[in-house]
Amino acid sequence: MGTNLLDLGDPFVRELWACILPSAFVILFCATLIPVPGWLRSLWQKASRPFRNSLTLEEAEAFEAAHENKKGSPADHSTSAKSVTSVFRTIALSGLGLLQVLVWLGLGSYSFAIHAKPWDGILPIITAATWLYASLRPIIWSSQTVFYDLFALYLTHLITGLTVLGGLFFDHSVYQLPLPSRVVLGARVINLSVLAALLAIVLNMPFAVPSTRINKDDVGKSVSPEDYCTLWDWISFHWVVPLIKKGTYNTLNEDDVWKLSPTLASRPLTSLFKDLGHAHIVWKLWTANSGDMIWDFLLTLVSVTFTYAGPFFLQRILSAIDNPTPENRAKAYIYAFAAFFTTLLKVCS
Predict the structure, then answer these.
(1) Closest CA to 191 of 264, 127, 260, 273
(2) What angle, rounded to 10 degrees, do the helices at 81-113 and 118-140 form?
(3) What are phi and psi of 272, to 5 degrees?
(4) Residues 166-179, buried b or exposed e (16+ Cβ, 10 A)?
(5) At 120, is the pLDDT very low, low, confident or very high (cuts 50, 70, 90)?
(6) How confident is the model at residue 251 (pLDDT cuts 50, 70, 90)?
(7) How far apart are CA 95 and CA 101, in angstroms?
(8) pTM score, whole prediction
(9) How far is CA 138 from CA 75, 116, 150, 155, 308, in A?
C-alpha cells in the first residue's frame, strides 16, 4: 500500500496502531495460558527467575507468623464488604467490556453493510476481540488484587484512542479536513469515558489482601500499608500521606511509625540468604536481589532517556515558533504536551 507505519499523520496508520497494540497485548496474555511442555516451562521459569522477587509477601508473612506462633491462612476469604466490592467490581469490568464488544462489532458490521473499505470493517472486529478478552478475564480468572493485564490493555486503548481522536481534530484544524459525524465523535468520546471508568476501577484495586495473620485494623497504623495499598495509592505515593500529615503538626514517636514490610524485615531476609547454601557471596547477593537490580538498571535507562527528551521537544517547539504556520503551531502544542508527559514519566521512573 506504500503506507509508512510510523506516519501518525495518516488517519489509517492511527487506526491501524489503535488495533495492533491492544491485539498484541491480548495475544501475549493468551499465549501465557497455553499449556506448554515441561521442559519449556522449566526453561521459562529459569529465564524469568532473575526478574521475580526472591521473597514474596506471602512467604514473608508465613515466616513471621511461624516465628511468632501465629495461625492463619495466606488469604482472607471471609464474606465481608470486600467480597461485595469484588463482586461489584467484576460485574462493572465485565459489563463495560461486553458493552465495548457489542459496540465495536456493530461498527464493523455497519462498515461492511455500507460497502466501506475492507479495513474499515476488519479493524473494529479485531478490536472487539480484544474487548472480549477484557470482558471474560474478570469472570474466568477472578481476583481481589490488581489485574495487571487489564490495566495494560485499558491504558493502551486509552492512549491509542486519544491519539485517534486528537488526530481527527488536528487534521480538521490544520488541513481543513471534515470531522466525522456527531455520532462517530460521540461514540469515541463515550469510548474514552468508559476507558477512564475502567482504569479508575483497576487503579482502586489493592496489591494484596491481608491474610488472617494480619489484623486489618493495624494496616496503616502499626503495619505498613505499602503492601496492601491500591495501585493508584502506590503510583501517587498517597499511601505515605497519613504519616506525613501526622508528622507535619505533631512530633512522631516510635509507635507512630509503621513496621517495615515483611519482605524487608531482617528475619525473613536472613533466613532466605541462609537457604541459598554455600555459594559464592556475589552469586548469593545476585540471587537475592536480581529483580531489584535489573529493574533499577532499566528504570535508570528510562530516566536518562526522558532527561534528554525534554531538550529535544523544546528544540522542536522553538523551531515551530520560528515558522508560525497553522501546522507548526499545532505541532508546538503537541510537543509541549509530550515534554510535559515525559517529565511526569521521568518522575515516576
Answers:
(1) 127
(2) 160
(3) -60, -45
(4) ebbebbeebeeeee
(5) confident
(6) confident
(7) 10
(8) 0.84
(9) 19, 35, 9, 17, 40
